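Re-running the complex after MR caught last week's input typo. The corrected sequence lines follow. Everything else is unchanged.
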Amino acid sequence: MNKNSTNIMALAPKSSNKRDTVCIFGTGDFGRALGHKLIQSGYPVVFGSRSTQTSSLIPKGAEVMSHAEAAQKAAIIFIAIQRQHYNFLTSLAEILHGKVLVDISNNSKINEYPESNAEYLAQLVPGAKVVKAFNTVSAWALQSGTLDASRQVFVCGDDMAAKQLVMDIVRILGLTPLDQGSLLAAREIENYPLQLFPMWKFPILLSLGLTTFFFFYCLALDVIYPYVYQKKDFSFFIAITIPNKICPILALILLGLVYLPGVLAAIIQLYRGTKYRRFPDWLDKWMLCRKQLGLVALAFASVHVLYTLVIPIRSYVRWRTSDRIISQIQNNRTEPLNTTNAWLSDSYLALGILGFFLFVLLGITSLPSVSNNVNWREFRFVQSKLGYLTLILCTAHTLVYGGKWFLVPSSYKWYLPPVYMFSLIIPCSVLVVKFVLIFPCLDKPLTRIRQGWERNPQYSEQSNYIINKSAV
Amino acid sequence: MNKNSTNIMALAPKSSNKRDTVCIFGTGDFGRALGHKLIQSGYPVVFGSRSTQTSSLIPKGAEVMSHAEAAQKAAIIFIAIQRQHYNFLTSLAEILHGKVLVDISNNSKINEYPESNAEYLAQLVPGAKVVKAFNTVSAWALQSGTLDASRQVFVCGDDMAAKQLVMDIVRILGLTPLDQGSLLAAREIENYPLQLFPMWKFPILLSLGLTTFFFFYCLALDVIYPYVYQKKDFSFFIAITIPNKICPILALILLGLVYLPGVLAAIIQLYRGTKYRRFPDWLDKWMLCRKQLGLVALAFASVHVLYTLVIPIRSYVRWRTSDRIISQIQNNRTEPLNTTNAWLSDSYLALGILGFFLFVLLGITSLPSVSNNVNWREFRFVQSKLGYLTLILCTAHTLVYGGKWFLVPSSYKWYLPPVYMFSLIIPCSVLVVKFVLIFPCLDKPLTRIRQGWERNPQYSEQSNYIINKSAV
Amino acid sequence: MNKNSTNIMALAPKSSNKRDTVCIFGTGDFGRALGHKLIQSGYPVVFGSRSTQTSSLIPKGAEVMSHAEAAQKAAIIFIAIQRQHYNFLTSLAEILHGKVLVDISNNSKINEYPESNAEYLAQLVPGAKVVKAFNTVSAWALQSGTLDASRQVFVCGDDMAAKQLVMDIVRILGLTPLDQGSLLAAREIENYPLQLFPMWKFPILLSLGLTTFFFFYCLALDVIYPYVYQKKDFSFFIAITIPNKICPILALILLGLVYLPGVLAAIIQLYRGTKYRRFPDWLDKWMLCRKQLGLVALAFASVHVLYTLVIPIRSYVRWRTSDRIISQIQNNRTEPLNTTNAWLSDSYLALGILGFFLFVLLGITSLPSVSNNVNWREFRFVQSKLGYLTLILCTAHTLVYGGKWFLVPSSYKWYLPPVYMFSLIIPCSVLVVKFVLIFPCLDKPLTRIRQGWERNPQYSEQSNYIINKSAV
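Corrected-run output:
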């Protein structure tokens, strides 16, 4: 058996011992860093520059020549120039014909120009194959090699072969290429590095708004009310007591908001009798940021736990404790153990602990490396079954905590309800509707709809296919 | 030097600007979602269907034709049909000859059929190259692009080239292909999405069983005993006091069970004088779920920590504190500081805190993204050295906590030992045996055995090579 | 359109249905494990060995023959032999000519030989293409398939095609190849598996040193001082009280040390007027271990939190509480609520809680899987903006905590300042300098320098290009 011959064939596409020359236009910060990294990985590099003097900043081993000369040396050219200076490339159109041009530029504002830089480049040099890539990597990260942040390089382009070529280079540099499709995606890719947690904006703004509202509500009832009617200065409640009321309320409301859109979607699907019609836009967006809503809720819950656990260390609480004991003694009155109170206190603590424990578990499974290691059935089991159990436990925790005050008139200062009651509205509604949806008379048609069945098939004729943009 | 010519060669296998047409049999939910995604990634898509009417649900840009016509257009055909309907494919055998058929089907039960769907398909169309893939991805995930759960696509097949082709498509769709070997692996791959945490079953069932046992044990001693003999109602102990006894006990027992199989394996290897004989099956399985055992133990330990930290907030504990102080005053008796008690109390708390801290550290290093970034020496240092230190600290925590009660007869209600004593049996045994194994007279031969040395080489002749199934 | 022909071309490089034969020299532990794994993945495997008797340990399906015969069967040969026995390979030089030799060996000590094993192999067999790979994978991991630790396989070599071939095999075995460049990198790759957290050495040694110093400082002031002057035995402070002073001090000092090098670097760049001159070595190293410093600081902060939360459970604290209440009653003296004290106590707790919460958030974003999913702007926002906020909160926490004691002479025992004051020096200095650097007169030139502007361009002529070794 002639094994060797097969092998030589397998090696054929890469039979030369050297990598192909790569050209970089521009000797700025990023161009040099990229050139340095390419040389390290075994690529011969030529720089195209206006001044062909070899500066000491140019990485060792690279040549500098005029743009035209450099372009002729290589089949792939990185354009490490700012968009404003692109227009000189039109004069090189002939030399650049058929070459792969890699647009690595970034803008300083989101949607700064009508078309993306890469599309603009493709218009300027129509004969070239333009690929967008590398704009998410910083020069500093390339230089230092400490790629703590993303190793992902988004790549897009209209020419498959050119894109493949660029993706191979990305891989050889130790980065992970992600094909984002045609050059139309360049706009999104150019906006990406300018984004600051776009999915987190809504949850964070919402919780800031709610925090402000509840803060002033609590301030009125807990600080201003006793000051006005009892002349007592409880201003120090601002540090711990009031935040420790706001945090659990927000945690519970946000957790409820995580499960509300799912319930709404089920109602809409049942009403429409089909899953092939798009949800309203607000519902779509809401569903996409459920993970972020849940994690913000978990953050509030964690702070609530810490605030609660330091209670016995607080100077005020220690004073109150000794004050009570002393007054009991002075009045010569000893209280027996109130078993009902012990039950209530212990059970709301236990419910809270178990709810928080499950909540942390949900948070851990939402870590990318963990969720990548479970299958769909497991992921949905955790996020749906365990998620609802968490919601039930946390709602019960709040109900038991406040239970005894519902009917006590003194807890309605200024005719306003105690603040924790607000937190119960959404979770209780979600749980009630979810409970109704479990009944077979509703669950069965819903399951069928979700498997593709349609009550009125004519609907689908009018509808458009559900197209969600691919997640970047 | 003619650079361009080299380059053209490098591009040759992909020289056309378009991807190859892909065919999908079946216009169901998954077929359409897959077609949509393929079109997004630049593949021309044709659907093979019984009815060739273009429905509005078919993704834009795709053609629908008869099965035979569609199959002729492409070299790769996704079979998005349920297994029950596979048999019509036999009539297309001639057209399908030499084509790559991708079986993406799933079953509704584990091991539903005698052979896997992919093998069944290969039997039906013997001339085709069957590849199993994509069954772990859900239609919804493909549609919405929010692949929160696994991006991993398990691929298997007997034809290397066909498998390679499918793996390339997987990569271009932004997913991660994992080669699982020949078509024999299809059974395991088809069972995979039906699994619900298979590795966690044993640890969770074990801890449920132990929890039940210890719950009734504690109920008898802590609630029923005082009710019977002292007419006191401590039923509220069920909420916190009893769980806070069960959790640390289970955490310690399970942590002991993590290190017990390693110790047993060492004894077996020392006794046999070789590492080339397979361990008994139960030991193999036990060793494979050590990570899960440890994480369940960590969960119990975390709940124990929370339960312990809320102690001073409990209504019962506050009542007890003030009751004690009041009775001290009424009896006009002041206790001086008991330094021994202070030492015992502080040191068991400190041991517990340090043990828990190391335990959490172990948990963090078992996160996939963390353990992927350490080398073997580091991984074993953390899991073995730090792991034993955790076990020692936690055992010492329990010993110091209970130390003073060992010899007090009143703690043996109904002649039964206090419940925490049960938790000490396994960890203490593990630590004693491990301590013995460290002695050079045992450690040296063990190290040599683990490096491949055999005391009685004839053994190995009879033994089979250790084959553990590759982890899915 | 003749689709099939295009397809056949696409398949060409892998047109045969079988993988190419792979040869392994050496039938030791690793050789057999590797052979087993290769056979599982569909490679025909031949072993080259001195004794050609097929042992029962050889994986089924593999052939054993003489080295010369085995080498002729394959284009790629794994050298699973120890370096000491390499010299016999010179006799096979002719047969090995043009073959790919994969050096998988490891040493037992860092830098054991003057040249790396792979380079030594390349010298012995100059006609072969030597590739270094697989040395970071353990035989046990290959055998059992439970690759809990790293799946990363570092690959280096001078021949691109040979390296590509080896990287393909790595991928097919389900591992992740990482190209580390030319064979010069072999030394670093061989040292890698012998390393034990090299980046953690400095932070851990530093914190051990500081811990020792502060321990004896606290011991003197808190245990020996009261023993000498008041004859009180507070030796039990060693368990919790003193560690709970050391932990927050170390956490704050180390957190300050995370941000100090960034401030120093800014000063150096401003002074030099360019970013193109290398930082002093100590600063470079310091900047590279900031993440580790921060995580060690987080560990100390977490232990501090646990130590603080158990305070009310401590026997000593409970005794002190009741002692105070009793003495209040006996002296018939009731204290009114001290609002200033309540404010101070509540605000230092609140500051600590918020600081710790942000600190944990920083820790979570430094998990590899999380930091891989954010872009640079987001990563820097978290690590810089949120990081400084954490530092401010934690410093404020310490300032408020100790505020009232600054001017009280009794807190200066033996004329020594209270220990927490030491912790404030570094964080306060960092915050003051950072505050100064924000002023536009300094911030503007710094920003320009970091974008590549130089005050005295002649500097750059003398300087060398900043070359940082790529992170392994």
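None of the earlier attempt is carried over here. Chain A is about 55% helix and 5% strand. Confidence is low (pLDDT under 50) at residues 1-16, 459-472 of chain A.
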